[in-house]
Write a structure and sequence with these properties.
Blueprint lengths: L3 E5 L9 H18 L3 E6 L19 H12 L3 E5 L10 H5 L3 E3 L3 E5 L2 E6 L9 H10 L2 H8 L3 H12 L19 H10 L6 E4 L5 E7 L2 E6 L7 E5 L4 E5 L5
Parallel strand pairs: 1-2, 2-3, 3-4, 6-7, 7-9
Antiparallel strand pairs: 1-10, 5-6, 8-9, 10-11
Helix pairs in contact: 1-2
């Protein structure tokens, strides 16, 4: 491989307020500038925005710097994938038309340099959380999106912004490792390994950087978030590494 592959998620742009979100956006753009020279593919694996909804002629205002940077990277031939997360599941075709990003609704299986990757934001997987899994089906339904689109954008986006202030991403407490036998995404990955082999399972959503050996030369890597950790993963063609952006050379 001449270029590297980068994975990041859970920027949660828009929360908890404008000032903090704007500072985080600047940090992310700095990271994109840092990785751009050797980046061949970029996987943005969900919850890039704390809320996103595309009306027919309206999108949430703001976030112009990251959109401009991603557009510039795409124009240089870098392939960018955008996974729907539980906060930005209402992404439609705007980013595809304007930037050229490929939108991924659920899991994506890829093979690079003879390594198999299972990629997913991570929401709705594994045991438990039946309430969210039920709500996820409702929120992702065309009827729900059609009904929300009937709201005036000022009302709809205003309601969503108010809801975001109480979301998990708006809190500053760091997540705690629960033990491999209780980490639901590790459990899910092990279940998938019973069916077929993957070298790497890469998820976001958990908000905790993790790199767990699942046995049989398979690993589960959670790429964390950018409120507390500024964490991401990079594959150089040989190995996958979990790294942290410090903003320093």
């Amino acid at each position: 491989m001449d270029k590297k592959i980068y994975f990041a998620s859970d920027f949660h742009l828009g929360t908890p307020d404008y000032a903090e979100s704007r500072a985080r956006e600047a940090r992310i753009v700095s990271w994109l500038n840092f990785i751009e020279p050797d980046c061949g593919e970029l996987f943005l694996m969900g919850d890039i925005f704390d809320f996103w909804f595309e009306y027919a002629k309206v999108i949430p205002k703001g976030f112009i710097r990251i959109q401009g940077k991603l557009a510039a990277m795409a124009d240089k031939g870098i392939k960018i994938y955008f996974f729907k997360g539980n906060h930005d599941m209402w992404v439609r075709d705007y980013f595809t038309k304007e930037i050229g990003m490929e939108i991924i609704s659920d899991e994506l299986v890829i093979e690079r340099n003879e390594k198999r990757f299972y990629l997913h934001h991570g929401d709705g997987l594994g045991p438990g959380d039946a309430k969210y899994k039920f709500l996820r089906k409702i929120f992702r339904s065309r009827l729900c999106q059609w009904l929300f689109a009937r709201l005036d954008p000022n009302l709809g986006i205003g309601m969503a912004s108010a809801w975001s202030q109480g979301s998990r991403a708006a809190q500053t407490e760091k997540e705690v490792f629960m033990g491999e036998d209780k980490e639901w995404l590790a459990i899910y990955a092990k279940e998938q390994l019973q069916k077929q082999h993957f070298d790497y399972f890469i998820f976001g959503h958990r908000h905790l950087p993790l790199d767990l050996d699942l046995g049989n030369e398979s690993r589960y890597v959670n790429i964390g978030e950018w409120i507390n950790y500024n964490s991401y993963a990079v594959f150089d063609g040989i190995d996958l590494k979990l790294e942290y952006f410090t903003g320093k050379p």
